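This part of the workshop introduces the protein records we will be handling. The question running through the whole workshop is how a given chain folds. To make this concrete, we reproduce a full record directly below:
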Amino acid sequence: MTRTTGSPRPSGLAPEIAARLKRDPDGLVPAVAQQYDTGEVLMLGWMDDEALHRTLTTGRCTYWSRSRQEYWVKGDTSGHVQVVKSVALDCDADTVLVKVDQTGAACHTGERTCFDADVLLKGEDR
């Protein structure tokens, strides 16, 4: 499966949503996964129109793997499932926010979030 530059490939995504999305040259938008009840930012993944469609219709987060060039559903191999609670576009329609109920680690390293290991600045550092 190869990304098409500039235009999305056909998908089941509602045309009114697809028309609003501002994609990168590979047809992707960043998708931020956030724990719905605590606000904890868990990870960033990438979605094309079909991944967003699958996320909206299945209730499970589906992402596009840029390295493997394939779709993946969070938790299918690890058991660390993301159950979708809500999905929103930012004001520019170039980023998706997916509020989820995360089971286990969100990061492929086994950490709860992808943002735990390399903190560059803490509030008390100022």
